[in-house]
């Protein structure tokens, strides 16, 4: 180990008494200059704005660290219960603006940078996104830790510090091209490496068993190839409350011993290769949102996260409480963000038994009362199953423990359902077949005290469908926690104009208590207020146009309806349905059916998993259609289709304030929750959506009159499957026939014959799981209702205000309060300011 903690008295405790740093514009300005000139050694000859960003970030970071230490001390003093959020993804986006807002120094910094002649927006735009996630699941983790800090809850996030985050997407000839995202290239001022908390992680080897002095069977995991997990901590500030929590991300490195062994054997190259293979573990984020992958490296990543984090927590426990674990479960809990970290169930057992000497029963009791599991998807292809052979080879001791858990669990099942062999095989943690597999979701359910879905419908479907056997066995474990988003990033910071108008009208209490937005409803008939609301929305649209124009050189009319669908590209999310509607509008223009036309700009953005062929083809189709429509002089301002490349967190911060219409059009029953839908609603966009995920709850909050509903319900989709006949539907719908004809005659791929054949045949297949054709007519009718509403500016503005006013439920402050009240039971800790 390179460093150890101080053992007896701390020789540098006097160094820890720091004076609080000043928060005025002048003090900040002086500090920026000092960092720029001294620490970074730059002067007027430096042309790169990056160093100014870095100087400012160091200034802000210093102020965070001060509060971070105080928070740590307060937690230590209280010896309070803690929760740990284990997630393979934290899609943090940028840090600077959010940190300034949460510290309450945004105005002072604005003044300081103005006085220095700097453009603050330009500076914040220099920061690369920390894109350590795929989409909703990773962004949810980021919103959660923001809310935990704001609610002053002692919660630590544990994840992986990928060297390369989510790939960057460019579009070449209409197709997605992936480029590596080396987000750490210029360093990362927000993190602190903590070598002193390094953990050792075992892989490979074999197990040996013996009988201990009490007659219990014990296992040892030996001949392992170890690697080190080094933590990097990022401060997570609460909203202007003095609390700064921690996000701890692990980076894999080689052990010195491991290197030396090879080196002494005289094989320098091998030794370097070994180092590389250790470091490879956290080299790259897997870009497969909701797709199976089954790669050994991914299992290594998952184990590294679980093992390093649990060792860290147990070490902290032993440091304070010695080897007495009787209170451990009362003082600690772990929330598993999907099955990705669910190996933690077996790892906690291993650590408690093999390292700390507990007996099985005691360890199992602790595990089952500290772990809680959140499921994020019903899609079968996303359910993780690991080959037993791979498991045995990589993590032999963990495999043993999982087999033992399974034996005891199946005994429980057969007591409840004697002789029901089919059920036993259905519920087994081990799936039989040509090759055996470990069902990770079942491991998570069996090892947890809570299983939750992320929206009402999704939680209901988990209970009635996917996990029904487990629900029958343990109904009390199952619950719902509808997702949310943090209103700090997703309204206060990303839409300062709207936030300003809201604060001016109802005060700033909404930033901490989003339900207060309801007060805005008092103003829906106030003409002056509505006028300002409309002006702010138009301003945001103009800003979005200017931003896109810079990037894409396309002219858009600010009065057009901004119709936006941004999310991962996936067949279940039905970007194709959106595109069919665009072709229908294009067809109407070409036919001259344009009386009372509503100009519309359809914006689509999102990344496809690199191995997901169909999703990539959908991107190509969108771009090809855009190319035809946007260059057709008959179309002009009436319709535009724009594919926005490289959709990411910082992109959404610019997009959501400028949207009129939010497209949430997944096949009912497939989108577990969705969270983009909430960001749009909060910023005053109206939703066109199916009864899926959190759309249902959005509609409940905002009322049927303020939501454009269409499409089959989940029940209807399921019963349609038996007799779905898309060709018959097409034949009965003249508009749809014409749309399909555009596709089939190659109108959008004149020089690329056949490239969309796969898409066409999937739409026309009676086995199309997403039943896109079935919802076409209903979607078109709903879009007509959208147009009628949009043409009445006053009505639309009113609906927009009502959407924001009723978005209070969708704050992660509400979600986290529910997690805490029902599952974690932590006491908020106030931190002296
Ligand atoms: C993400 C990544 C992976 C993987 O890397 O293998 C697998 C599955 C997911 C995933 N993402 N599963 N569900 C989600 C999304 O989670 C958010 C947050 O709860 C929901 O709003 C979305 O509906 C869901 O698709």
Tags for this entry?
binds ligand B0W, 47% helix, 6-stranded parallel β-sheet, 10-stranded mixed β-sheet, alpha/beta, 833 residues
How would you describe the overall organization of this protein?
- This protein has 833 residues and is α/β, with parallel strands linked by helices.
- Helices cover 47% and strands 15% of the residues.
- It is globular, with a radius of gyration of 28 Å.
- The two termini are 36 Å apart.
- The chain binds ligand B0W.
- The site of ligand B0W has 21 residues, from helix 6.
List the helices and strands and how they pair.
Blueprint: H1 25-39, H2 50-78, E1 82-86, E2 90-93, H3 96-103, H4 106-115, H5 120-126, E3 130-132, H6 136-150, E4 155-160, E5 165-172, E6 175-181, E7 192-193, E8 199-201, E9 206-211, E10 217-222, E11 227-237, E12 244-254, H7 256-264, H8 268-279, H9 296-321, H10 328-331, E13 332-337, H11 344-355, H12 360-370, E14 371-374, E15 385-387, H13 388-394, H14 396-416, H15 421-427, E16 430-431, E17 437-439, H16 440-446, E18 450-453, H17 456-466, H18 468-473, E19 478-480, H19 487-493, H20 496-506, H21 527-552, E20 561-566, H22 575-591, E21 600-605, H23 613-630, E22 639-644, H24 649-655, E23 661-664, H25 676-682, E24 686-689, H26 695-702, E25 708-709, H27 714-720, H28 726-731, H29 734-744, H30 757-764, H31 776-791, H32 793-805, H33 812-824
Parallel strand pairs: 1-4, 1-13, 4-12, 13-14, 14-18, 18-19, 20-21, 20-23, 21-22, 23-24, 24-25
Antiparallel strand pairs: 2-3, 5-6, 7-11, 8-11, 9-10, 11-12, 15-17, 16-17
The protein binds ligand B0W.
């Amino acid at each position: 180990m390179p460093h150890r903690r101080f053992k007896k008295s701390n020789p540098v405790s006097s160094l820890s008494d720091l004076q609080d740093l000043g928060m005025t514009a002048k003090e900040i300005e002086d500090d920026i200059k000092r960092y720029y000139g001294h620490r970074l050694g730059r002067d007027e000859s430096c042309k790169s704005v990056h160093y100014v960003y870095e100087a400012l970030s160091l200034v802000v970071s210093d102020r965070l660290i001060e509060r971070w230490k105080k928070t740590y001390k307060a937690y230590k003093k209280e010896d309070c219960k803690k929760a740990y959020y284990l997630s393979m993804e934290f899609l943090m986006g940028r840090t600077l603006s959010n940190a300034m807002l949460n510290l309450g120094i945004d105005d002072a910094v604005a003044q300081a940078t103005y006085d220095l002649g700097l453009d603050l927006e330009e500076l914040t735009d220099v920061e690369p996104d920390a894109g350590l996630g795929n989409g909703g699941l990773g962004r949810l983790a980021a919103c959660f830790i923001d809310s935990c800090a704001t609610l002053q809850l002692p919660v630590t996030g544990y994840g992986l510090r990928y060297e390369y985050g989510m790939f960057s997407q460019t579009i070449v000839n209409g197709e997605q091209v992936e480029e590596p995202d080396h987000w750490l290239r210029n360093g990362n001022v927000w993190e602190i490496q903590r070598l002193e908390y390094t953990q050792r992680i075992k892989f490979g080897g074999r197990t040996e068993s013996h009988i201990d002095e009490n007659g219990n069977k014990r296992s040892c995991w030996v001949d392992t190839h170890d690697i080190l997990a080094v933590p990097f901590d990022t401060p997570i500030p609460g909203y202007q409350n003095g609390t700064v929590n921690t996000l701890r991300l692990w980076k894999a490195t080689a052990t010195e011993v491991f290197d030396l062994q090879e080196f002494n054997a005289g094989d320098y190259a091998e030794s370097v290769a070994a180092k590389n293979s250790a470091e490879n573990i956290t080299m790259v984020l897997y870009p497969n949102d909701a797709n199976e992958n089954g790669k050994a490296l991914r299992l290594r990543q998952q184990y590294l996260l679980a093992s390093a984090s649990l060792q860290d927590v147990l070490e902290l426990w032993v440091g304070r409480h010695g080897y007495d674990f009787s209170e451990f479960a009362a003082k600690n809990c772990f929330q598993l963000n999907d099955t990705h970290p669910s190996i933690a169930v077996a790892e906690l057992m291993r650590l408690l038994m093999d390292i700390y000497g507990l007996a099985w029963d005691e360890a199992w009791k602790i595990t089952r009362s500290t772990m809680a599991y959140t499921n994020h998807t019903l899609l079968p292809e996303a359910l993780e199953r690991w080959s037993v052979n791979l498991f045995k080879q990589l993590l032999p001791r963990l495999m043993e423990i999982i087999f033992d858990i399974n034996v005891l669990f199946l005994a429980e099942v057969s007591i409840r359902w004697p002789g029901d062999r089919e059920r036993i095989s259905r519920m087994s943690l081990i799936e039989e077949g040509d090759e055996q597999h470990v069902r990770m979701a079942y491991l998570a359910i069996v090892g947890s005290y809570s299983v939750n879905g992320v929206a009402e419908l999704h939680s209901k479907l988990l209970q009635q469908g996917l996990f029904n056997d487990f629900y029958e066995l343990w109904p009390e474990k199952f619950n719902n926690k509808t997702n949310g988003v943090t209103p700090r990033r997703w309204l206060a910071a990303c839409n300062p104009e709207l936030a300003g108008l809201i604060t001016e009208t109802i005060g700033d209490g909404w930033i901490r208590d989003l339900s207060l937005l309801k007060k805005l409803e008092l103003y829906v008939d106030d003409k002056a207020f509505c006028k300002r609301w409309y002006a702010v929305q138009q301003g945001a649209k103009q800003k979005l146009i200017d931003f896109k124009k810079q990037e894409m050189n396309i002219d858009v009319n600010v009065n057009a309806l901004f119709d936006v669908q941004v999310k991962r590209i996936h067949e279940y999310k039905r970007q194709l349905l959106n595109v069919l509607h665009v072709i229908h509008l294009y067809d109407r223009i070409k036919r001259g059916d344009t009386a009372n036309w509503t100009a519309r700009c359809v914006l689509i953005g999102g990344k496809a998993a690199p191995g997901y062929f169909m999703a990539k083809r959908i991107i190509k189709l969108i771009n090809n259609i855009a190319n035809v429509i946007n260059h057709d002089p008959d179309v002009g301002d009436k319709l535009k289709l724009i594919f926005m490349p490289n959709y990411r967190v910082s992109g959404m911060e610019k997009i959501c304030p400028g949207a009129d219409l939010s497209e949430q059009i997944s096949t009912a029953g497939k989108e577990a929750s969705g969270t983009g839908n909430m960001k749009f609603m909060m910023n005053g966009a109206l939703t066109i959506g199916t009864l899926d995920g959190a759309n249902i709850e959005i509609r409940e909050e905002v009322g049927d009159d303020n939501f454009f509903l269409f499409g089959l319900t989940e029940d209807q989709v399921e019963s349609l499957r038996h007799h779905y006949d898309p060709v018959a539907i097409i034949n009965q719908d003249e508009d749809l026939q014409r749309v399909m004809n555009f596709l089939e005659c190659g109108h959008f791929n004149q020089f690329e014959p056949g490239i969309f054949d796969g898409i066409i045949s999937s739409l026309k297949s009676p086995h199309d799981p997403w039943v896109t054709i079935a919802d076409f007519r209903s979607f078109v009718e709903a879009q007509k209702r959208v147009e009628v509403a949009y043409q009445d500016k006053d009505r639309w503005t009113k609906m927009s205000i009502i959407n924001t006013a009723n978005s209070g439920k969708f704050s992660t402050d509400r979600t986290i309060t529910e997690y805490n009240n029902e599952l974690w039971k932590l006491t908020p800790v106030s931190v002296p300011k």
